[in-house]
Amino acid sequence: MKFLGFIVVCLTGALLLYGTGQFPAWGDPGSPASTHLSNYYIEKTVEQTQVPNIVTAVLADYRGFDTMFETSVIFCAGLTCFLLLRDFTEKKERFYRHRPTGVILHVKDSEKVLKVGKEFEHIDKDFVPSDLIIKTVCRILIPFIQIYALYVVAHGDFSPGGGFQGGVIFGSSLILLAISYDLKTLVERIKEKVLGIFAAVGVLIYVGIATICMPMGGNFLNYGMLAPLLPGDPRHVRALGMLGVEIGVGLAVMAVMAIIYINIVSEGRHDEGL
Amino acid sequence: MDNYPVLIVVTPLLAALFAGLAAWIEERLSYPIALIGLAISTFSAFKVLMRVIASGTIQYRMAGWAPPIGIEYRIDLLNAMVLMLVSSVAFLNLIASYKSVEQETNDRAASFYTVYLLFVVGLLGVTATGDLFNLYVLIEITSLTSYAMVALGDRDRAPLASLNYIFIGVIGASFYLLGVGYLYMQTGSLNMADVSRILQSHQGSSIVLTAFILCMIGLWIKMAFFPLHVWLPNAYSYSPVAFSRVVAPLMTKVMIYIMIRLMITVFGYDYIFKTLHLSSAVVWLATIAILAGAIMALAQKNLKKMLTYIIICEIGYMVGGAWMGNQLGMTGAILHILNDALMTFAMFLAVGNIVYKIKDVDLSNLTGLFGKMPWTMAGLVLAAFSIIGVPPTCGFFSKWYLILAAFEKGAYQFAAALIISSLICAVLFFRVFEICFFNTDSKDHEHGNGHPQIKIEEAPVSMLIISGLVSLSLIVVGLFSGTIVNTIILPFLK
Fold it and tell me: Tens digits of per-residue pLDDT, B116-151?
């Protein structure tokens, strides 16, 4: 069986090499990929969409339909994690730590609800006393990471960036919060329900903006038709449409990042992990 | 401006998002939202089909950009037929699924409907699009959702089946993507019509040949063509009933549709059959696939597993017909997409009803079912007759075209395999009938004094009505095969 696999791999490699044989030279300006459509995008993008970042224009306008489904793929990934991993059953054991003395209570029977005072805190099974340096550094860093993420989303039209990148950066700031403090801190601040709604609303912003174009008299996704609804110069309407969908993408990606992280590290229980 | 082409795909997507929101706000709303979304989608597909039959191909420009610059939906007769098929099967199955979802995945029903809708969005988008990369993105959505759905099934075995499915499915999808990359290297375009126009002048290029082979192997993996089929039986038989009823008839058939679309619209007949001469080799492969599928089906002891191997056998029919290289073969293959989807759907509806009542559909558990579930069994018998190919049902007509095509081309081995597999199907189904009809429970004998009282324990009415409707449609479609061939398939092939 291993030998068979080896043969298949060799054949595939040979096929790929054979196909590469007639490739245009590396960086050849005359190759079909750089002459057929690229010229059109390079010459017309700014004139047609008022967006200086050609990548964003191709991604969110010329081929915006693909990006809409890519965002749906992200939504789908988050939903799948929730659907398969989320476990609503109660945990068996609980741990409480007495703050002044550091004594830890281990409650093995989850049926019994132990009423504890304020001087006890509910802790993870593999509790490690928190590190002051890590906590402080992260607490200072997280707001800046989040502002930077918003900048990347908002400035995607003009410089490298956009909804996917901004969303991932924002999501990573949430994950950093969970790592530097503990998972409970994150889950208390952003409820599971909020994350779930954000993920759906993000994609809905994208699809909604695209759908509104139809009753306004254009084809699906034709931002140009939104001019009567938006203030400002009508020539900028495509850029504004793109900004709108980028915000939707950012929102969805941020929420899905957090959903995936929380569900995987806590094995779907949302109580403790990592 | 007429927006029906895009509404087919976008309404289920919107419905999925609203159902996803409803999961957090008011869970009971998600089912009606899903139902409305698919109803509008089916209605739009019907409108588009009528329009295409009346006035030819529809082109719809996304965001208003002209085709090679932007993405377009290009809906011709073949698309329109498959769109109608996919949306109506998904809609009917959703009606039938309410009770089985309640039974199987009650605690997360809203998420189930959301994923279900996204799966249907993927299938519809794949079918409607005229852009090679857009097709890949939607294959990704269908695959991702189907991995999730499969894993949700049988608690012990489904996760492993899903994992196998993920590994192989991802390889298949990346092969297709790699093929599209090679095509882009040669043409600089992703629009199917544009690529096809540019390819006319690159018939001998090794890049195009590699792209062709990569795309075809990717799709063969995705459609479970015989040596690449290993993921299918477990994935389909362990998934939740509500999902296996929609994935078994649609997924592989839509992949066959993509293969035919690439063969006809992108690479072109001349390239495949005159430049490459691959026809007879693939027809041999298809012959082997048919025989292997049928023989493996014989070895199964579980009704669901047996049906999944019959699907593999049917894939062989369609691939063989499409690669026959003559008009009859292609007609047979396209007609068989419609027929096979319908009869597999009817079959799985009946099996779903049985699963609803008796959890385990091992053949030995099916005793006395004709007495207990007469209506379900009537549907099952009709579907089985259609799969075997008994004349008034639709299965007969597509097989007839395929056999004629095989004789025209001189591929007698294919015709022989087709007939042998039909006979094997007959043996398989009559074995099932025998168990269900003649073998009765030993318990009944103890109670009865010669005439055991058999209580009728049927599945819920919603499931029975859909099952009955679809089974009857097998005869209706069979009787109107001539009309379908003359109004849809032949004008498309000209």
Answer: 999 999 999 999 999 999 999 999 999 999 999 999
HSE-CB of A216 using CA atoms within 13 angstroms: 20
Q: Do B207 and A22 touch (CB under 8 A)?
A: yes
| Interface touch A21/B147, C-beta < 8 Å | no
- Give the phi and the psi of residue B58 in degrees, each rounded to 5: -105, 135
Detail the DSSP E strand segments found in chain A.
94-98, 104-107, 120-123
- Tracing tokens 């409907």 back to the chain, one arrives at B113
B59 strand-pairing partners: B74
For tokens 């599928």, the residue is B293
Residue A90, CA distances (Å) to A50, A87, A270, B478 in order? 54, 8, 11, 55
Residue B399 near residue B481, CB atoms below 8 Å = no
Q: Are B118 and B112 in contact (CB under 8 A)?
A: no
Residues A145 and A138: their CA atoms lie apart, in Å, by: 10
CA distances from A213 to A163, B7, B137, B391 (A): 21, 13, 23, 50
Residue B60's CB is within 10 A of a number of other CB atoms, namely: 20
Please give the angle made by the CA atoms of B317, B322 and B325, to the nearest 5 degrees.
125
Question: Do B15 and B39 form a contact (C-beta atoms < 8 A)?
Answer: no
Specify whether the CB–CB gap between B128 and B205 falls below 8 A: no
pLDDT confidence band for B453 (50 / 70 / 90): low
pLDDT digit string, tens, across residues A175-225: 999 988 888 888 889 998 999 999 999 999 999 999 998 888 888 888 888
Identify any residues that bridge with B72 across adjacent strands, giving them in sequence order: B61
Q: Mutate which of B207, B215, B221, B230 to test chain A, going by most A C-beta atoms within 10 A? A: B207
Rounded to the nearest integer, the mean pLDDT of chain B is: 89
Q: Is the dihedral of CA A107, A110, A116, A122 positive or negative?
A: positive
Instruction: Give the integer Cα–Cα distance in Å for B366 and B345.
Output: 20
Q: Is the ipTM, as predicted for this complex, more than 0.95? A: no
Q: To 10 degrees, what angle do helices A132-154 and A163-180 make?
A: 170
Q: Which residues of B touch A211 (CB under 8 A)?
A: 10, 14
Per-domain residue ranges of chain B: 1-273, 278-494
**Torsion angle of alpha carbons B201, B206, B207, B213, nearest 10°?**
110
Tell me the C-alpha distance between B315 and B256, whole Å: 8
B385: tokens are 């007759």
Pick the closest to residue A41 from A28, A55, A27 (CA basis). Answer: A55
> Dihedral of CA B3/B7/B10/B14: which sign?
positive
Question: How much is the CA Rg of chain B, to the nearest whole Å?
Answer: 22
Q: Is B110 on the interface with A (CB under 8 A)?
A: no
- Contact call for B184 and A65, based on CB within 8 A: no
Calculate the CA B440 to chain-centre distance.
Answer: 34
User: Nearest-CA neighbor of B52 among B77, B85, B87?
Assistant: B77
Residues 6+ apart with CB under 8 A from B225: B285, B286, B289, B315, B316, B319
DSSP letter for each residue of B353-387: HHHHHSS--BGGGGTTHHHH-HHHHHHHHHHHHHH
Name the minimum distance, in Å, from the CA of B386 to any CA of chain A. 36
Chain B residue numbers with beta carbons less than 8 Å from the beta carbon of A202 are: none
Question: How confident is the model at residue B359, as a pLDDT?
Answer: 79
Alpha helices in A86-233 (DSSP H): 132-154, 163-180, 183-189, 192-212
